[in-house]
Amino acid sequence: MCARSPVLNQSGPTEFVFRVFTTVPELQVLLFALFLVLYLTILCGNTAIIWVVCTHCSLHTPMYFFLCNLSFLEICYTTVVVPLMLSNILGAQKPIPLAGCGAQMFFFVTLGSTDCFLLAVMAYDRYVAIRHPLHYTLIVTQKLCVRMVGCAGGLASLLSLQLTVLIFTLPFCGHRPEINHFLCDVPPVLRLACADIRVHQAVLYAVGSLVLTVPFLLISVSYVLIGSAIVRIRSAEGRRRAFSTCSSHLAVVLLQYGCCSLVYLRPRSSTSEDEDRQIALIYTFVTPLLNPLIYSLRNKDVKGALKNALVSKAASDNT
C-alpha cells in the first residue's frame, strides 16, 4: 500500500501504466499471438451468430433476438479490453491517460453488467416459452423484447457511470501508478487510491450484488419453475427438447456468474491481485469464446442455419 502523504493527496495522476505479463521478448510474442488469435476467433464466432440470426427468417424469434444481442455485447466487451491489452504486451509499458482509464472502466462495467441483466432476461424468455407456450407470442412481443434489452443497457450504464465517477474523484499515489492488471477494472484501480476507500468498496460490493446476485436469483427462480414444468411433460422426447432449449443458456450463466462472483463478491481480504488478473482472463476470453460455440453446438436451429448458409455459399462460389 502506498504512503498517503499530503503531497500525494494534492493532485491525482495524469496517467496509469499496466503491469506487464512478462519482460521476456519471446514470451511477449507468444502471448501476443495467442491473445490475438483468441480475439479474432471471438469476433468471427459472435459475428457468425449475428449474421445467421439476421439472415434466416426462421430465427427471427425472441430467443434468437436476445442471442444476437448477447453476441453483439461479447464483441463490444472484448473490443474494449483486448486491443489496448495487445498494445501493452510488446515492448515497454505504455501509459494510459486518466480519462482513457475512466472511459475503459465505464464501458467495461457497462457491457459486463448489461451481459448479466440480459442473461436474466433470456431466462424469463425460456420460462414463458416452457410454462406458457400457448401464450408465448402474446406475452413476449417484439416491443417487450426491445424494451427489456433497452432497460438492461440503461440500468447498466447508470450504475457504471456512478461507480466510475465515484472512483475517479479519489486521489491516487504518484504521477504514474502501476495497475496490476491488463485493464482499468475497479478493484485494481481502487487499490492505488491514496485515501480511505471503505465507502467506495462498500459501493462496489453493493453494485456487484445488484448486478450479479439479483439477476442470478431471478434466473434461479425461473429455472426452478422451468424444471417443475419439464417434469410434468409426459413424453421423454418432449422433456428432452424442453431441456435442450435451456441447457445452452444455463451453461453460459454458470460460466459468467461463477467467474465474475470470484472477482467482485469475494471479501477483499481473501483476494489476490494476481488471482483476479487470472480470473479476468477467463471472462475476457473464455466466456465470449465459448458462448457462440455453446449455442451453435447445442442448438439444432443454429446448426441447421449455419450448415445451409455454408452450403449456399459453396454452391454460389462454384457457379
List keywords for this structure.
319 residues, three-stranded mixed beta sheet, 11 helices
Biggest sheet: strands, sense, closure? 3 strands, mixed
- The CATH C-level name is Mainly Alpha
Structural class: mainly alpha
| Parts with pLDDT < 50 across at least 5 consecutive residues | 1-12
- What is the CATH H-level superfamily? Rhodopsin 7-helix transmembrane proteins
The H-and-E topology, N to C, reads as: HEHHEHHHEHHHHH
Determine the strand fraction and express it as a percent band: under 5%
As a whole number of angstroms, the C-alpha radius of gyration is 22 Å
Instruction: Let me know the average pLDDT.
Output: 83
Q: What is the count of helical runs?
A: 11
Report the end-to-end length measured between terminal Cα atoms.
Answer: 67 Å
CATH names the topology as Rhopdopsin 7-helix transmembrane proteins
Strand order of the largest sheet: 2-1-3
How many domains is the backbone divided into? Answer: 1
Percent helix, as a range, is over 70%
Query: What coarse outline follows from CA principal-axis ratios?
Result: globular
- Tally of extended strands? 3
Keywords: Cell membrane, G-protein coupled receptor, Membrane, Olfaction, Receptor, Sensory transduction, Transducer, Transmembrane, Transmembrane helix
Domain G-protein coupled receptors family 1 profile: 45-295
Family: Belongs to the G-protein coupled receptor 1 family.
Function: Putative odorant or sperm cell receptor.
